[in-house]
Amino acid sequence: xxxxxxxxxxxxxxxxxxxxxxxxxxxxxxxxxxxxxLAERCGLSAGFLSLAERGINALxxxxxxxxxxxxxxxxxxxxxxAGRRSRHEYAITRHDDPHAARMALGERxxxxxxxxxPDQCIETLATTVHPTAEPSPxxxxxxxxxxxxxxxxxxxxxxxxxxxxGPGDAVHFKSRVPHAIHNRGTxxxxxxWTVDRPLLRRPDGTIC
Length: 208
Fold this sequence. Notes:
The structure is a single chain. This protein has about 210 residues and is of the alpha+beta class. The protein has helices at about 15-30, 35-40, 45-55, 60-70, and strands at about 100-105, 110, 125-130, 145-150, 155, 160-165, 170-175, 180, 190-195. A hairpin with a 2-residue loop joins strand 1 and strand 2. The longest helix is centred in the N-terminal third of the chain and has 16 residues, at about 15-30. It is globular and about 45 Å long.
């Protein structure tokens, strides 16, 4: 089992973390699952999960996917809605768009660059990764990912190697490959992250 206590941010519960944690607890209770059973299903420790439900430990996006799979829900059901996106055949995103979807999970902050299009198959995020003492927990899930580093340094821990990526470097992989990331430097890393499915959008058109 992955022990995430050392890699998640801990401290006073904040608003977004409390909302996500409360929704996880509600779904877990609704399904009659104990903390230990859910923790075993998603590969997290029961102690970390207990703090996450209280909003004290922030979840990474990949840990959120693991929890969503264990609870048999879409990841967006664990997050709050924040507006609506275009359903046109194309969309233009401006750097100063006040309506752009944003969220923070753990050491990562995401801004959604893609809009909702008919039959959308990808989503691209402008992501900042703050330095942490320990890497994120290893995770694996369905899908495909591409990460391009714009600024700073980001380390990808993969089964056969540890890849250090700097500005202009990229990694493309199947999400079923166990992977973890770590910003082990002193500066925030900025990356473009593309995945093969909309991660933060609800079926009714609202997003998180």
